Amino acid sequence: MALTLASAAQLLQQHHLLHEIVRADRWTLDAGEFEGSDTPFSSVTYDTRKVEDGTLLFCKGAFRPEYLDGIDVRGLAAYVSETEFHERTTAPGLIVSDVRKAMSLLSAEFYGRPQEKLTVVGITGTKGKTTTAYFTHAVLSALSGGKAALFSSVDNCVDGHTYVESDLTTPESLDAFRMMGEAVSHGMRYLVMEVSSQAYKVNRVYGLTFDVGVFLNISPDHISPIEHPTFEDYLWCKRQIVDNCRTLVLGADADHADLIRQQAQRDRRSIVTFALHDEAKLTTPADVVASPADPAHTQYRIEADGVDFGLFSLAIDGDFNYANAAAALAIVHALGLDASPEALHAMEHVKIAGRMERFEDPSTNTVAIVDYAHNGISMTALLDYVNERFGTRHPNITVITGSAGNKAYDRRKEIVEAAQHRIGRFIFTEEDTNTEPTEDICKQMAGYVTDPQVEYDIILDRAQAVENAATAAKSHPERLDIILAIGKGNERWIKRLNRHTPYEGDDAIFARLLG
């Protein structure tokens, strides 16, 4: 059914969002009082530069009235806003209590409610979302003959094979429903998507019910005045996926798992659990379990409901990624699918550029690992991996790190505290510092270094920081040097002053220097 002014007003009233419909000469609840109220909108957008004849515009975020100057001549049909702008435009305004909620509902309607034509999996958690999404996508693609779409923090894929770099972990609702519509047009049957805490905080997934919602884990992150003021708020936003799914997949060892179970039971959600077992530490019962099959942890055995699915050897290093593989199998079970061994082993071929990506120069005894690790818990997991794989060789470890500007201030201290007693040197450098001075962030992080045995340097230019670490490591061929470059992965840009500026990439530099 086409979206019109009349049907938009009706939908908004059903969800108790509509205040009134406003034009200079009229304030009303009856869209029929406006000429053309049953004319379908030709397009929807939140960018005034994309307005054309018949467009419905969403005025969200830091919207400024002057953006509407001269917009009538371009054919604006109507706008949705929390503030009326009848002095700037003659187009009727749907005035609402929450424009982001309204945008999600109306965008879904405009694109034909594509979520109802897909089986949708939503994955949240502090770490592991991307890898789990890729593993799940690989298995569902194998089971469906390539009919699975993907929305991730790295890439989006709406046709089963073409990957396009993404801008956000979870797209804006309008973009998400547009891409869902494209996925449906390409014949996709499944959609796997990452769901960030911000997606619930700012209503990017409002009104969307996941066939399977996944809660991997939780630890403090994104705590800042512009993200989540407290850990409780962060956890509460993450937990919204429980209320907005039909079946929950839960990490059995997640912090606050008991609380999440209570919520799922209250909402009458069925639960499928997964866990990573290690004889020495973790033995929590779960429906799907991954456990090491050899002392070196080069292979893992995965079992589901007591059925042995065999040995797995992933292309992505790190024991924690076997927990993500177990989560993927739990998702498949939650969907009620019978996974063949061939489909499950599709996970073994998954590689994600910039995620646990390793570069080596055997002639100089140098190993570099590029990863998106960006907080204390992911830093700890990365160092645990280094210790398990290389600890007996007593490597000299250098960490290249910065921290995002203007947000998540808690990460700066967490990263340093997680690493400083386990490494030989920090290099503090730029990482999407945005409007915050790079030098200030680096000095703040350096101030958290309290271990006198740890060296640190501040090299503001990230490319120079990577090159410096590689040169220093190669100058000591008598020892094993390991460089951990975290935070940027394979990104080819650095965010400065709200703009993406070109950057060669950590992985590209190591490939050039180490081969």
UniProtKB/TrEMBL annotation:
Its main location: cytoplasm. Residues 123-331 form the Mur ligase central domain. Pathway: Cell wall biogenesis; peptidoglycan biosynthesis. Transmembrane segments: none annotated. Keywords: Cell cycle, Cell division, Cell shape, Cell wall biogenesis/degradation, Ligase, Peptidoglycan synthesis. InterPro entries: Mur-like_cat_sf, Mur_ligase_C, Mur_ligase_C_dom_sf, Mur_ligase_cen, MurE/MurF_N, UDP-N-AcMur-Glu-dNH2Pim_ligase. Its EC number is 6.3.2.13. Residues 354-489 form the Mur ligase C-terminal domain. It is found in: Cytoplasm. GO terms for molecular function: UDP-N-acetylmuramoylalanyl-D-glutamate-2,6-diaminopimelate ligase activity. Belongs to the MurCDEF family. MurE subfamily. This is UDP-N-acetylmuramoyl-L-alanyl-D-glutamate--2, 6-diaminopimelate ligase. The lineage of its organism: Bacteria, Bacillati, Actinomycetota, Actinomycetes, Bifidobacteriales.
